[in-house]
Amino acid sequence: MAEICPICGLPKELCVCEEIAREQQKIKIYTEKRRYGKTVTVVEGIKSDIDINELAKTLKTKCASGGTVKNGNIELQGDHKKKVQEALMKIGFNAETR
Fold first, then answer.
1. Which residues of the chain carry a pLDDT beneath 50?
2. pTM for the whole thing?
């Protein structure tokens, strides 16, 4: 017997909760200057409904850079605002750069 999602009421295979959560989030992408003049791209506003570690891994692979997850934000080494925005849009997020 298939498991039923407690949020949307659909079987787990057809669950759309994560897709809806992606569309409703406002994600901000910006760069910061850190020590020694290093640039870091920060992806902010990802809620706990999404697996942030898996998303960080995907973005690091897409941008071919290192990075980490700190305080609920994804930090990537270097200036990758355009690449990150395109990648998030393909996945289904509503992302804006500043």
1. none
2. 0.76
